[in-house]
Amino acid sequence: MSDTRRKTLGLPVRADGEQRPVNPRRKPVRGTGSVGRRPPVAASAEPPVSADKTDWRKKSQAKRSDRPGGQSSGVPSDKLKPPSARNKRNDDRGTGGKGNGGDSKRSQRSQLSEPGRRDESKPRSENQNPSAPTPLAGNLPDAAPPVGIRVSKLMASRGLCSRREADDFIVRGWVFVDGERVSELGTRADPSAKITLDAQARAAQQRLMTILLHKPVAYVSGQPEPGCQPAVVLIRPENQRTSSDTPLFHASHLKGLAPAGRLDVDSTGLLVLTQDGRVARRLIGENSKVEKEYLVRVEGQLIDNGLALLNHGLLLDGKPLKPARVEWLNDDQLRFILNEGRKRQIRRMCELVGLRVTGLKRVRIGTVRLGDLPVGKWRYLRENEMF
């Protein structure tokens, strides 16, 4: 009896003859015992077919020979030729030779079916694609322009109200054009049309308030800036200067209240805030001719002919200034009367003639004067006052 050790089935054996312990976590191989191993795959006697490049003729012949009975696949022989040979044969069919009747027609149809090609033997109009998009609207003749001017624009240009108020009145049905009520936005009318307002619109305009404020230094007239407050915060009941003929303050008077003109943060004087678009247009409109009077304290040495240049002849931002009236009041104070208001206009004008502004106060707008209104106080525009 041989001394050879008997192997336990399913256990792999090391080179020294000892058996390896079985891993209890290892899953059994399908088709074997719980601890069996998959038998090794026998090596193929024939080497694997390499994916080398084979001539396309041999491939086609091999395909035909693989079929039962050696039958062909039914593909025409010209289809098995290289692309260059097929193209050459198609060219021969189109230029003459046998059987060029149906083949030439098919080749012509194939040429016409190619995208971007057209038949040169036909007029260009016959080759147009019926499914092509129609010309753009911009290429069509221009439509007739709308007749007339918007009613809201006419009302604003005539000073009846602002365009925003006009739109509101139109929506409410408070506007009449040549006696007919208008209640649709965008309605147009002849420039010479007669426009009237309903009594309710006139009553609403009378309720719009205009406020005169003596603005202090360090307050801005419009939008707030860093470190500065807007002047409208001063419109409070305790700052109102009342009289027997002026109404009392109400919170509704702040709704839509906006400054009609600017006054620099380091300037003081008369500032107008209004709810009435007519007042704002009269003061700051493009065609406004309302005068504004300022008292200006200066220092420095005026250049030769400087006073004449202040009256007329200076440019700001490349644009000439309108004529002004400037005169000396004393050794260090000038009076400016302007009918335009550019940003920091007076200060920049003085710099151009060698002067520096140390104080500026607006004392009049149109026929309305600041008077004895204290700094930081305000009052309503009186009924007998007009700019």
Would you kindly provide a brief summary of this structure?
Helix content is 22%, strand content 19%. It is α+β, with helices and mostly antiparallel strands and 387 residues long. The strands form five sheets. Strands 6, 9, 10, 11, 14, 15, 16, 17 and 18 form a nine-stranded mixed beta sheet that branches. It has a three-stranded antiparallel beta sheet with strand order 3-2-5. The protein has a two-stranded antiparallel ribbon with strand order 1-4.
SSE order in H/E notation?
A: HHHEHHEEEEHEEEEEHEHEEEEHEEE
Q: In CATH terms, what is the fold-level topology of the domain at 210-380? A: Pseudouridine synthase
Which shape, going by the Cα principal axes?
extended
N- and C-termini, Cα separation: 138 Å
User: What proportion strand?
Assistant: 15-25%
Main sheet: strands, sense, barrel: 9 strands, mixed
Reading off the top of the CATH hierarchy, the class of the domain at 210-380 is best stated as Alpha Beta
Mean pLDDT: 77
Given as residue ranges, the uncertain stretches (5+ residues, pLDDT < 50) are none
Q: Could you give me the name of the CATH homologous superfamily of the domain at 210-380?
A: Pseudouridine synthase
Count helical runs: 9
| Rg, nearest Å | 49 Å
Which percent range fits the helix content?
Answer: 10-25%
Helix/strand-derived category reads alpha+beta
Counted beta strands: 18
CATH-scheme architecture of the domain at 210-380:
2-Layer Sandwich
